[in-house]
Each structure stands twice: as structure tokens, then as C-alpha cells.
Amino acid sequence: MAAGAAVRAWMLVLCLWGAVTGDQNITARIGKPLVLNCKGAPKKPPQQLEWKLNTGRTEAWKVLSPQGDPWDSVARVLPNGSLLLPAVGIQDEGTFRCRATSRSGKETKSNYRVRVYQIPGKPEIVDPASELMAGVPNKVGTCVSEGGYPAGTLSWHLDGKTLTPDGKGVSVKEETKRHPETGLFTLHSELMVTPTRGGALHPTFSCSFTPGLPRRRALHTAPIQLRVWSEHRGGEGPSVGEHMSEYTVPLEEVQLVVEPEGGAVALGGTVTLTCEAPAQPPPQIHWIKDGRPLPLPPGPVLLLPEVGPEDQGTYSCVATHPSHGPQESGAVSISLIETGKEGTTAGSVEGPGLETLALSLGILGGLGTVALLIGVIMWHRRRQRRGQERKVPENQEEEEEERAELNQPEEPEAAESSTGGP
Prior knowledge:
It is built from 2 helices and 28 strands. It is of the alpha+beta class and about 425 residues long. The protein starts with a helix and ends with a helix. Among the domains are: about 25-115, Immunoglobulin-like (Sandwich); about 125-230, Immunoglobulins (Immunoglobulin-like, Sandwich), CATH 2.60.40.10; about 255-335, Immunoglobulins (Immunoglobulin-like), CATH 2.60.40. It is elongated, with a radius of gyration of 50 Å. The strands form 7 sheets. Strands 21, 23, 24, 26, 27 and 28 form a 6-stranded mixed beta sheet that branches. A 5-stranded mixed beta sheet has the order 1-8-7-3-4, with no helix packed on it. Strands 12, 13, 16, 17 and 18 form a 5-stranded antiparallel beta sheet that branches.
């Protein structure tokens, strides 16, 4: 029963992945299972055979047999004598040999040279140029291929034809990196070209990846089409096929115009910023707020509808021209005014302004009332103190007058008694 289950499992592996027989040179995809057939091996146990492996996982030849244990889940001998590698890796590249002896005593040897591969993702052109200038070196872009094995190669194409670096009009800078853990390769290829005056005005560039193993299909990037401009110099006539509109006009000083003038606007109002950068071809305009680029598509006009507190700040624009570096305009400030002008729509500024004014007047009125009460109380207390101070002297004077009146008749009586005596 156990032998039958093992045979059925082996047949299932064959149905799913297939067995490799006949070829001496084997290519296997990384991460997939691989089965190597041992020719001449008896179909049923007991079997007289042994596998010898010399790969990146072994320092020397390693021996595996049906009676031995699986080798750390890297490889094991199946019931029919074939060798199974559940998940092929880069370290499994090398030589595999099987020697089998039939029941009649005939010896058969099988030799395999195994190589592995990994198909990378589709290559792409990063940081592509938008336009090219005739007569000067231009960077077209960088072609990138990631996750391939073996490394393979990258090639550039112009209008469907392969570009060959010559160190003059065409130059390529290549870089190959290998991932320290997976062992897979990443390729970079940067293309520089010098378009000739009078050449194609709209060249198409593409890049392709060619695998390092034969019989593997090349992978291509999406093509990019660029426009070639010719700089106009005095005394030179137009080249063949060129038009006056295609000459380059130098970028002048970049001006930033704001409406309304001054950048002060009522809450809920609208501000329009216009970046004036006359040049040919038209430069790309990017916007900056408080020193940070705004995540907006390039454009010469920035509209701020329904301005709120979050829109306040300092704005500027940056113009990028093919033949010049980026040039930034002067900065303008956008601010909110507290009260609206005549004609503002109801609810935009007047409503919140009246509420704020009423609240402020209420607070001021309450503070004024409290101050008035405190003043009245203090005045009343001061008046009482002054009344008491005046009353004390008056009482003293009355007491002295009463005493005087009482003492005055006593003195005459005494006088009379003294004068009327014997």
C-alpha cells in the first residue's frame, strides 16, 4: 500500500511538471520542481543505483541513494529511481550523474548539466526626456531590468533599428547589480545621443532585454517618441525640414502675476496666479507653496477657488526650459481679509463677520458693566469714609460747647455766693 501511494504520488508529479529525459543540458526555472531520470534503473525496488551531485550546494561530489534519507529537502530519490529537486535554485547549477545496475547486471550511466534561469519583469525606461536639442548631447533616458538570471543584456533601438554606441553621437553607460540574498540581477543602461541638424524631428526610442540563455524570448519596453529642436543662431538659415516655429527662443525672466492685485482676498473668494515665462518651446511650469512643490500637473495658471485659511502662504512658480536650467519667479503672498467689500455674496464673509462683531460687543458690554458697578461701589465707600471723618470733629465741637454751657452758670453762682457772704 505504501509503495502504491508513492507510485501514485510520483505519477502525479510527472503529470504536473513532466519528467526530463534524453537531454544532457538541462535548463530549469528558479523556484520550480525538476525531475531527472535515471536511465536503466529498475522500475520496482529494490534498486541498485546511486546519484552523484556536484553543484553550488556541495563542496565535492555528494552521493544519494534510494535507501538514504532526503538531503535537507533539497533533493530526494523517487521510487522509480529518478531524482526530484522540489524547488530549483541558483545553487543547484552543476553536474548530476546517475549509475544504475539492472537485475541482469547491466550498468547504465546518465549525465546532466543543469543551468537555471529567471525571467525578469518587463524592462522600462525611467526618467525619459521630453525633448531633444540638435547638435548637443542629450540624455534620452535609463532602461531598467530587474529580477533576471543570468544577467542578460540591454539594447537600445532607434526607429526599430539597434543603436550601436560609437562614443560620439551615441553613448551608453551600463551598470549591473546583483541582489545579495536572491542572487538575481538588476541592469541599468543610460542612453546619450547627439541629434544632427536636419535629421528626424520625431525619433522613436525603445529598449529590449535579451536573456543570458539561448532560446529565450527578448523583452521590449514601450517606445517613447521625442521631438528634436534646433537652436537658431544669427547668420544660419533653417535646416531642411525645419520651420521657424521650431527654433529655440531663450527663456526670459519669469514673472508671477496675481489677481486680485496684492494677493489679499475675502474668505471664499478666488485667486488666480499666472506664471509668465515667454520662451520657445514653451517651458514646463511647476508651482511651489511655502518652499515645497505642489502635487499638481504642470501648467502656467494656478486657480484657487473658495480661498480658505489653508490657502494662505507664499507662492512661486518654476519654469524649466530644454536648453536652460530651472528658473524660479519672485514670490507672492496670499492672505485673507477680515471684512468683505461691497457686493460680496451673503454668507461668504458678512455672516461670520457679524457674528464675530456681535460676540465682541457683547463681551465689551459685559466688561463695561462690571467696571461701572465696581466704580459705583468704590465711590460709595469713599463717600461714607469722608462722612465719618467729618462727623467726628462735629461731635467733638458739640461736646465742648455743651461742656462750656454747663460750666458757664456754675462760675457766676460761685461769684454771687462769694460776693454776698459776710
